[in-house]
Amino acid sequence: MKKILIIFLIFPVGSLFAQLFPTLGGQRAGISAVQFLKIGVGGRAASLGDAFVAVANDASSLYWNPAGAVQAEGTQILISQNYWVADINHQFAGGIYHFSKNDAVGLSLTALNTDDMPVTTEFMPFGTGEYFSFGDFAVGLTYSRQMTEQFSFGITLRYVEETLDKLKMRGVVLDLGTLYWTGLGTTRFAVAITNFGNEFTPSGKVLLWGKREKSDWQSFSPPIMFRMGFAFEPYQTQSHRITASVQLNHPNDNSENVSAGLEYSWKEIFYLRAGYKFNVEEQNYSFGTGISVPLGIAKVTFDYGFANFERLGSAHRLSILLALY
Fold first, then answer.
1. Which residues contact 1 (CB under 8 A, 6 or more apart)?
2. Which residues pair with 181 in a beta bridge?
3. Which of 36, 68, 234, 285 has the fewest CB atoms nearer than 10 Å to its CB?
4. 107 is in which domain, residue-wise?
């Protein structure tokens, strides 16, 4: 147990040490497109500071780590509503189906939308009377397999579409994930790389001042994210469980950062959670709760997550998980 605790402490201590040096990764900010793919899903994950790749064992794993999909109990359906900053609405729906003990497939849908915004120009800064819209959409297909008693693997193929007024971007990205149970108590180790794919190039044309048209656009890479996580239960009885997780995040368009989370469960009915993000601009602490209600052949879980932003306010994530046994 002492070795496990030492491993768990290395990650946040290493993060604090790294902050003594320049975070040159911040210079990469703004180089990727379809940023909505970076917004996490599920009230449970939000409460844990998004330190979730090694914890994901429900339908939200379709976003966090496809290797966790086969760990989900029974057939599951998750619906998540995220009230993001700046009045942005972000929705996610996903389902997992086991067609054998060691194989599972999943389908997920993600959408982001805003209210219509007024068109402004240099000479009409208060609006021209016209409005434009912005929205994102993605659909993913997941396959997850339990290779051995300790190791599982998953892959997700996702079609992505982004619309900004008359411009549209389309592309396909790939998620790969692994989950390994070390055999030391309940410790597990996970690695996931998400949103890997070709560059996105907008299509369409816009009318500029002086009736000039522009139809050639720069290409941008997708927001590739590499996550490495570690989780275990430092305390567990028939009635009580505490899960601790820590995660290293390496985005292609920003600095590396570390997130950590704790979850307390009472009889797998009532949950309390908290998390923190280190070296993430704007974001810091999070917390939330959850409750599970058994309904005959199914169990319904309601989760809420609060994420604090230093200047932008806060984000609220609600999710409902239906598990059929």
1. 185, 234
2. 188
3. 285
4. 2-18+39-117+129-198+218-324
Q: Which helix (H) or strand (E) is 63 found in, with range?
A: helix 61-64
Residue-wise pLDDT tens digits, 65-92: 999 999 998 899 999 999 988 788 999 9
Render pLDDT for 261-278 as a digit per residue (tens, 0 to 9).
999 999 999 999 999 999
Count of the separate structural domains present in the chain: 1
Q: How far, in Å, CA of 33 to CA of 138, rounded?
A: 14
Q: Is 145 left (phi over 0), alpha (psi -120 to 50) or beta?
A: beta
Question: How many residues in the chain?
Answer: 325
Residues near 183 by Cβ (< 8 Å), separated by ≥ 6?
A: 150
b vs e for 278-311, b when ≥16 Cβ sit within 10 Å of the residue's Cβ?
bbbeebeebbbbbebeeeeeebebebbbbbbeee
CB 139 within 8 A of CB 109: yes
Q: Select from 175, 159, 171, 191 the least CA-distant residue to 62.
A: 175
Question: Using DSSP, how many helices (H) and how many strands (E) does the chain show?
Answer: 3, 18
Contact between 259 and 244 under an 8 Å Cβ cutoff? The reply is: no
What distance lies between CA 4 and its chain's CA centroid? 26
The type of residue at 313 is G
Among the listed ranges 25-34, 146-155, 191-200, 276-285, which one has the minimum average pLDDT value? 25-34
Question: Quick check: is 302 in a domain?
Answer: yes
Residue 2, exposed/middle/buried by CB under 10 A (0-12, 13-18, 19+)? exposed
> Does a structural domain hold residue 123?
no
**Radius of gyration from C-alpha coordinates of the chain:** 21
Kindly state whether residue 210 falls inside one of the protein's structural domains.
no
- Rounded distance, CA 181 to CA 96, Å? 21
| CATH code of the domain in which 139 resides | 2.40.160.60
CB-count exposure of residue 122 (10 Å: 0-12, 13-18, 19+)? exposed
Whole-angstrom distance, CA of residue 30 vs CA of residue 169: 17
Under 8 Å between Cβ of 18 and 256: yes
Task: Report the Cα 290 to chain-centroid distance in Å.
Answer: 18
